[in-house]
Amino acid sequence: MTPEELNAARDRVLPDVVAGGLRVLFCGINPGLLSAATGHHFARPGNRFWPVLHMSGFTPRLLSPAEQGELPTYRLGITNVVARATARADELSAEEFREGGRILTAKVELLRPQWLAVVGVTAYRTAFGDRKALIGPQERTIGATRIWALPNPSGLNARWTAAAMAQEYARLRAAAESADPTDVDP
Hints:
This protein is of the alpha/beta class. It has 6 helices and 5 strands.
């Protein structure tokens, strides 16, 4: 992609990858410019979402961003807190996050996934007004949908290795496969 092509993707909205009956709806912060330009979530090569999804056991093989359409066959989906594409998440305002939280709540009420997994605890805190939230299952629910805050898979998140992220994602997978999704301690 040329810089011009990437810049032309600014403010584009990337369609969700969703279906009914999802076990987990993964929720990114917002699309990056490469994702918006290609039409594929988590498209930047340094993003660890796809490898971590596989390492944690959510998918039987490593999917590429271009294969995102396969996610519903595993009862998984992808959306974003804020729909518009930016070069960096710090270009988004707190109000955009709060509005994104309201839109996301309505989307979850409609789709009713078993779990909403927000990939980025800071985004979760801002969107839902929960300043003390930590990585892991949250007390808040949206209807019957449980919420889990996951580490941000961006390559910029140096605090978490891919292996450590995969362990946290695997905890969510185990909870999503459990017969009783309410039987998880926040």
